Amino acid sequence: MPLLELQDVLARYGPIRALHGVSLTVDEGEVVAILGANGAGKTTTLRAICGMVRTAGEITFAGRTIARRSPEGIARLGIAHVPEGRGLFTELSVWENLRMGAVVRGGQKALRQDAERVLGYFPWMEKRRDQQAGTLSGGEQQMLALVRGLVSRPRLLLLDEPSLGLAPTIVRELFAIVQRLNDEDGLTVLVVEQNATIALETASRAYVLEVGKVAVSGESAELQRHEGVRKSYLGY
Amino acid sequence: MADFVQQVVSGLATGAIFASLALALVLIYRATDVVNFSQGEMATFATYIAWSLMDRGLSYWPAFALTLVLAFIGGAAIERVVIRPVEHRPEIVIVIVTIGLLILLNGLTGWLWGAEVKAFDSPFPNETWDVGGVAVSVQDIGTLGVCLLTVLALWAFFRFTTLGLVMRAVANNPTASRLVGVRVGWMLALGWGLAAVLGAVAGMMAAPTLFLDPTMMLIVLIYAFAAAVLGGIDSPLGAVVGGLTLGVLLNLLGAYVDFVGSELRLPTALLVLLAVLLIRPQGLFGHAVVRRV
Fold first, then answer.
1. pTM for the complete prediction?
2. Cβ neighbours around B86 below 10 Å, total
3. Which of A113, A199, A234, B249 has its CA 20 to 30 A from that of B119?
4. Res. B291 pLDDT band, cuts 50 70 90
5. Nearest residue on chain A to B185, judged by CA atoms?
6. A121: domain range?
7. What is the pLDDT of residue A152?
8. Does residue A171 share a domain with residue A67?
């Protein structure tokens, strides 16, 4: 049984339909990518999973229906969402942001155990723990958002456009970390990305969305060879 | 000189009352994004509860503490029952609901306790202390002390507890708070509860000098508005500094500028409000809001 399963999910913003029946699965321990152009419904798919947009259709997580639960209820089941535009608490410090990530697990004590391990990936964060999050650079904010998601010890991590607005070297670094977390800790990740090249290098499988529907899906290696995907999303 | 110091101290005492109520306004503004026009009536209602408790024979401090607990429950209940249904409506709708709440609470207070003025005991003796040759009123020092202790306790709560952190996070970014699993609705109720507690403290401290009647806090609320705007409506520190500044300023103007006297104190406060809005709309400590249109 897959960890996450979407069956024929529809979503709308007011009168505008954004998803026209999306079906996908994510197994435990997998990294899965959702690719597609602007407005294809990638972000809406993630928002549907974490309850931030009204949906029709079936969404199950670890065997439970989550389609009509509140965002906070879904988060408490172990789904961490690192939103597009990062969604940090800009007025709080770096450390306070991390504490918020672990808040439903009981805060400080639980956090300390995880912090050392996770901060090992980002030495700068430890040194600047009292800095206000809003004053970090774009790349640093993205990394903080990622770590905040990780300290909740999620069963599933949703990453929305982690490469958005970041320099290529930082994007590589970020995906390398996601890869490492998957290899070492078996972290399950569903990542939405416009940068198909790097997403397909990290993910084992991918879904390509076009106008609110899954157009193509398959193993990453397969999609890298797929002519339509190559032309439209990989650019060669 | 001695007279000047006395005026400053008594200004700080009234200022501390403004500051408490202004801080209550700021708390709700940060959590709900609206000014709560019923804050003064909530405070008056709580003060009447304290009066009733003492009328039944409870002594001052137990009645004070019990009133704070009841005010907290009442404030949180108002958020859950009255504000929650309109939570996602435009701000103007919530503002109108708080104005409705003002009228409702005012009527309810008059209906339950009557409109005649009641005397309200002060916990502090009507004496003066000699501090380096200056006689300061114990009432003033006591009022200042109670208000500042409340503010300090609240600050420590926000600064050092996990629950306080969560409430700050909700004020900063409600959507992100939900995504990390925070039940935002309950945090808003908690904010209303704490604001009601601050209001209750202000009401109980103001009542001995203003006397208790259903409109007691109406004028105080206007001073609190002026104080909150002076400090910056989104800044808790600003509310406290603004309140104390306004209290001292009004007291000194009343004492030393003949034509202000006691009659023109309110217009002076409104003048301060107007001047701040014209010259520095974000107040002393607030953030300027830049909106793209």
1. 0.87
2. 15
3. B249
4. low
5. A72
6. 89-153
7. 85
8. yes
The pLDDT tens digits of the residues spanning B178-211 come to: 999 999 999 999 999 999 999 999 999 999 989 9
Tell me how many helices (H) and strands (E) chain B has. 11, 2
Q: How many angstroms separate the Cα of A109 from the Cα of each of A5, A122, A154?
A: 33, 20, 17
CB contact, 8 Å: A202 with chain B? Answer: no
Q: What's the first-to-final CA gap in chain A, in angstroms?
A: 36
- The sheet with strand A31-36 has its strands ordered as A79-82, A156-160, A189-193, A31-36, A205-210, A213-219
pLDDT digits (tens, 9 = 90+) for B222-244: 999 999 999 988 889 999 999 99
Whether residues A48 and A161 share a domain: the answer is yes
Q: Is residue A83 part of a domain?
A: no
Tokens matching residue B229: 């705007």
Q: Domain check: are A136 and A159 in the same one?
A: no
How confident is the model at residue A171, as a pLDDT?
A: 87
- Which residues are within 8 A (CB) of B64 and not within 5 positions of it... i.e. 6 or more apart? B50, B123, B204
pLDDT per residue as tens digits for the range A41-91: 888 999 999 999 888 899 999 989 998 899 999 999 999 999 877 789 999
Q: Give the best residue of B87, B172, B173, B179 to mutate against chain A (max A CB count within 10 A).
A: B179
- Closest-CA residue in chain B for A150? B180
Out of A70, A87, A104, whose CB is closest to B173? A87
Same domain, A146 and A93: yes
Pick the last residue of a domain from A118, A153, A188: A153
Q: Residues of chain A whose pLDDT is less than 50?
A: none
Which residues of chain A have a CB within 8 Å of the CB of B161? none
A with B: how many residue pairs have Cβ under 8 Å apart?
A: 70
pLDDT of residue B293: 47
Token look-up 């650019």 returns A235
CB-based contact (8 Å) between A218 and chain B? no
Q: Measured between CB atoms, which of A81, A92, A108 is closest to B179?
A: A81
Residues A144, A216, single domain; the answer is no
Q: Is residue A109 part of a domain?
A: yes
With an 8 Å Cβ cutoff, are A72 and B178 in contact? yes
CA torsion A138-A92-B177-A116 (nearest 10°) is 80
Closest partner CB to A72 (pick from B162, B168, B184) = B184
Distance from CA of A67 to the nearest CA of B (A): 15
Asked if B182 lies within 8 A of A108 by C-beta distance, the reply is no
Instruction: Quote ipTM for the complex.
Output: 0.88
Does A184 touch chain B if contact means CB atoms closer than 8 Å? Answer: no
- Confirm or reject contact between A107 and chain B (CB < 8 A): yes
**Would you say residue A68 lies in a domain?**
yes
